[in-house]
Specification:
single chain
Length: 66
């Protein structure tokens, strides 16, 4: 099936927009994973959520300063 140049341009623009949307979310998730506290968490499973929430707060504060 052959597409017109206008259709190709529209498709390409939509594809670029869609692919750039999740990048900021991926960066936010990656920043949590860089914290050594979460990489080497050896504590009890029931305390992980509290630890993760604390790290998420620190990451958020750090991001707000930028």
């Amino acid at each position: 099936m052959d597409a017109t140049p206008e259709e190709v341009a529209t498709w390409d623009a939509e594809r670029r927009q869609q692919s750039s949307e999740p990048i900021c979310v991926e960066h936010a998730n990656a920043e949590h994973k860089q914290w050594r506290t979460l990489q080497r968490f050896l504590g009890r499973r029931e305390y992980f959520e509290e630890t993760y929430t604390a790290v998420a707060g620190l990451v958020s504060d750090r991001a707000a300063e930028r």
